[in-house]
Amino acid sequence: MRNKDLTFWLFLAPVILALGAVVVIPLLAGFFYSFTDWNGLTFNNFLGLEHYLRLLDDGRFLSSLWFTIQFSVVTVVLLNVFGLGLALLVTQKLKSSNLLRTVFFMPNLIGGLILGFIWQFIFIGVFSDLGELLGIAGLDGWLTTGTTGFWGLVILTTWQLAGYIMIIYIAYLQSIPEELLEAAKVDGASPFQRFRNVTFPLVAPAFTISMFLTLSTSFKIYDQNLALTDGGPFNSTEMVAMNIVYTAFSSNEMAYGQAKAIIFFVFVAIIAVSQVYYNKKKEVEM
Amino acid sequence: MAQKRKKKLPVLEILGILLALIWISPFYLMVVNAFKTNREMFEDVIGLPSEATVENFVQAYIDLNFLNALFNSTLITTVSIAIIIIFSSMAGFALARNKSKTSNAILLVFVAAMLIPFQAVMITLTSFFGSMNLLNSGGLIFMYLGFGSSLAIFLYHGAMKSIPLTLDEAAKIDGANKFQTFWYIIFPLLKPISVTVAILNVIWIWNDFLLPSLVLSSSEATIPLRMFAFFGEYTRQWHLALAGLTIAIIPVIIFYFFAQKQIIKGVSEGAVK
């Protein structure tokens, strides 16, 4: 198939049309509108950088950004610790391996919205009873403060996505030749030494993939945020994605919301580009 | 040695099962409390219900208009996946069989589009589609093609590398045109990737909330949209809310039960690539 062939373009036409109409044009138009007073239908004036300068003074937006960054850092660490831990556990040739894998992965199939509602019940309805039963005061009043809301979101997200990260680590763990571990064992390496010197270096690529994947996923979270805390109390647990939706569709400040969305895009792009850069650098080293 | 191994395994086995119990405890708590009355729940939230009340489920089922939501979700998910598979595999085939710079550039644009977060386009997207009267399930399905084709094309393009060009040539000698070659020779060989693409997209589209909430009217609402409205209506009436959540999860559990192996394999392939 050559470029001049009509068939080449016919094969591509549906997806090019869809990507253009759904992603490319809205993105370019959105970038343009973020410099205007666009109200969703028309615009009258160019405002230059006004929206972007306003962002710097928007306390609610800045605190949502800071909350999102803190949330992402904590979640990335926990997800990788749990993901790798669970993967190591289920690859130990246990009788229950398959069952465990099934259970740990299950939350991934259910949407963040529904899981958020279930955990809202756990944190509010069950935690207080559990606290009374066990005599732990710290289990009372969850989701009523910014701190418990933060940890609630962390727990929900870790619980939901750890099984997914586990699957990635399993794929790499299973690609390690059995003989390598046997040889290390014969040479007298302890289980910890075998993990440290054989397993860990060989799953390092999985670590890179998982780290960036979890970072960009947790940065973009919306459904869980909406269902579990709805940003409350007093917007203290509002994340960036929710702040953008709120600005555009509740306050009806379309152009301002769009400017926030562009900044959000820049953050996500930085994460993605640094991953590509990191991978390239590693390839050179190897 | 043998003795040591025997001792070690039960400890890990028990640890694994304990962790698994913790992992499914939210589902356990959801289901048992969905069978209780509000009063019984306040007395004992952890234990089994003294007598199973199905009234909660009946009311939740009616209020969710569940059959209608299930129909909407199923229709939107299956049609979207069918067009994503057909059009993306065609594109992956065309891009893989054309080794020009143009072809590479097009692939790069699709791959780069995967990095764009939904929030960056949602405002203008809904405004444009709204002005064309396309904020309905038809418009939504077209949007899913736009958002979903990137990853699918990337996967199909990768899989095309293992399908030899000699097959295309043989088909050409037998008098097949490009469409026939693709549809009768190549597409069947891409079936394993089609399964992966289908699974990844089922998980995404079935559970998607924000996009359909901006696009669909209440009569076309999918399960997550109905669940959102339902939950808002029954704040703090946990017994009803939990019954609704349980009903909403049942289709996913059935799907997982029957396609578990393919799901885990598909997710693993989609993530590692």
Question: Would you mind describing this structure in some detail?
Answer:
The complex is a heterodimer of chains A (286) and B (273). Chain A contains 11 helices and no strands. With 286 residues, chain A is mainly alpha-helical. Chain A has a single domain (51-285), classed as MetI-like (MetI-like fold, Orthogonal Bundle), CATH 1.10.3720.10. In chain A, α3 (59-90) packs antiparallel against α8 (191-219) and α6 crosses α8. The mean pLDDT of chain A is 91. By secondary structure, chain B is mainly alpha-helical. Chain B has 2 domains: 2-43; 63-272, MetI-like fold. Chain B has 13 helices and no strands. In chain B, α12 (223-233) runs antiparallel to α13 (238-272). The longest helix of chain B has 35 residues, at 238-272. The radius of gyration of chain B is 24 Å and the shape is globular. The model of chain B has no long low-confidence stretch (mean pLDDT 92).
CATH class of chain A: Mainly Alpha
Number of domains of chain A: 1
Q: Ends of chain B: how far apart?
A: 40 Å
Biggest interface, which chains? A-B, 86 and 88 residues
Fold-level CATH name of chain A: MetI-like fold
**Backbone structural class of chain B:** mainly alpha
Q: Helix- and strand-based class of chain A?
A: mainly alpha
Overall pLDDT of chain A: 91
Which regions of chain B are unreliable across 5 or more consecutive residues at pLDDT < 50? none
Query: How many domains is the backbone of chain B divided into?
Result: 2
Distance from N terminus to C terminus of chain A (CA atoms, Å) equals: 36 Å
Quickly count the helices of chain A. 11
Kindly state the percentage of residues in helix of chain A: over 70%
CATH architecture of chain A: Orthogonal Bundle
Number of helices of chain B: 13
Tell me the fraction of residues in β-strands of chain A, as a range: under 5%
The amount of beta strand of chain B, in percent, is under 5%
Uncertain spans of chain A: none
Give a count of the beta strands of chain A, DSSP E runs of length 2 or more. 0
In CATH, the homologous superfamily of chain A goes by the name MetI-like
- Share of residues in helices of chain B: over 70%
